[in-house]
Design a protein that fits this description.
Blueprint: H1 12-15, H2 20-26, H3 35-38, H4 42-52, H5 68-83, E1 97-101, H6 108-119, E2 122-126, H7 138-152, E3 156-160, H8 163-166, H9 177-194, E4 206-212, H10 220-225, E5 228-231, H11 237-248, H12 264-272, H13 279-290, H14 292-299, H15 317-326, H16 333-346
Parallel strand pairs: 1-4, 1-5, 2-3, 3-4
Helix pairs in contact: 4-7, 5-6, 7-9, 11-12, 11-13, 13-15
């Protein structure tokens, strides 16, 4: 990547209008500012670093309940190439764009963070509001600044939540001009990222991950750039059980764990009665049930500030029964059917067992 030479004095001129904290993040060793950054307005670079760039956090695959097929796919097309780009060239090259689609609350954002964490990559999280501006033309400049900063801090993962809201299918011309220009610029930048992967490992490594609950509304050009499309379904019974155990255990922290009397039979019953719940629904269900003992204390006029954590009664299955009347499944059967139909047409399906000659026996035409 071309660089612009810095001044000898290392002063403000050396940072080319960037605030010191932003310059230190982009050029931690005092190296020259990349040319792509110089072409962007400093206040836009500052906005990207302040609002879109997320602080590093550790997210492991074990933090994501279930989704074994999805985790296997994203490791192959996202994590491995970011960590070992020299192996993914030529015929082994992978698409630079990944689409995660499925019902809301199933862990798409968490998967994006896990990719960045496991690949040691910088994570950028954007939405339609992140790129909004009251000034005409500033949205496109923000998009350019985003990809310029992502390239400077590569390896990077640019996660676009609800990407369909930014890249809806182009229709009959009723779209606002500013939205059309923003969409065009985003598609151009996506082409630069997703179209140049796999040729060499000397340039910036940027992976674009889009997430959507409505893949059918996505523009065809955007879907073509997000070549790998992975269905993120509702959690199965085993995954729902893992979510409950994980949350009650306080993510491994004794100070955050919540005592309970749930037996294996209770957990089985709980998972059987939460079919159709998303991961987000299960989280809210556990939280609702966990607050039940506190409600009883308040009903008895007990001052909660005087109660220690170990003085609260354990959670029971009955608490979950009551909580289930408050927290209902947020995804309808029609939503699930629509996503499964889309997955049959466009999704990355699970193949045969690795290392076998026959592969998937259902593929009779092969």
């Amino acid at each position: 990547m071309a660089m612009h030479a810095c001044g000898e004095d290392g002063g403000a001129e050396h940072m080319h209008g960037l605030p010191p904290v932003i310059y230190a993040r982009i050029c931690p060793n005092g190296e020259p500012v990349p040319d792509a950054i110089l072409k962007c307005e400093p206040h836009l670079v500052e906005r990207i670093c302040g609002e879109v760039l997320e602080a590093p956090r550790t997210v492991t695959w074990d933090d994501i309940a279930g989704l074994e097929h999805a985790k296997a796919v994203v490791q192959e097309v996202a994590v491995w190439p970011l960590k070992a780009p020299h192996l993914f060239k030529g015929a082994r090259s992978v698409p630079g764009g990944l689409l995660l689609f499925g019902p809301p609350g199933t862990g798409k954002t968490l998967l994006g963070r896990a990719i960045a964490s496991q690949a040691g990559a910088t994570f950028f999280s954007i939405s339609a509001s992140s790129l909004g501006s009251k000034w005409i033309g500033e949205g496109e400049k923000l998009v350019r600044a985003l990809f310029a900063v992502a390239g400077a801090l590569s390896p990077s993962v640019v996660f676009v939540d609800e990407i369909d809201s930014l890249l809806t299918a182009r229709g009959d011309g009723g779209e606002h001009e500013s939205s059309r220009r923003l969409k065009t610029e985003l598609l151009v930048q996506m082409e630069g990222v997703t179209g140049g992967q796999g040729n060499d490992d000397s340039g910036p490594r940027v992976l674009l991950v889009g997430a959507t609950n409505r893949p059918q509304e996505l523009d065809e050009a955007a879907r073509r750039r997000l070549a790998k499309q992975v269905y993120i379904p509702l959690p199965c019974a085993a995954a729902r059980r893992q979510i409950v155990v994980h949350m009650l255990g306080g993510s491994g922290s004794a100070s955050q764990s919540v005592s309970n009397t749930l037996s294996n039979a209770d957990l089985d019953k709980l998972c059987a009665h939460t079919d159709g719940y998303s991961g987000s629904d299960m989280k809210h269900l556990v939280q609702e049930a966990a607050r039940a003992p506190l409600r009883e204390l308040r009903a008895a006029n007990v001052d909660l500030s005087e109660i220690k954590a170990d003085g609260v009664r354990p959670i029971t299955l009955q608490d979950f029964r009551r909580a289930a009347k408050q927290v209902r499944p947020s995804v309808t059967a029609a939503d699930i059917a629509a996503h499964e139909e889309w997955n049959k047409k466009h999704g990355a399906q699970a193949g045969g067992k690795i290392g076998t000659e026959g592969g998937d026996e259902s593929d009779g035409e092969w």
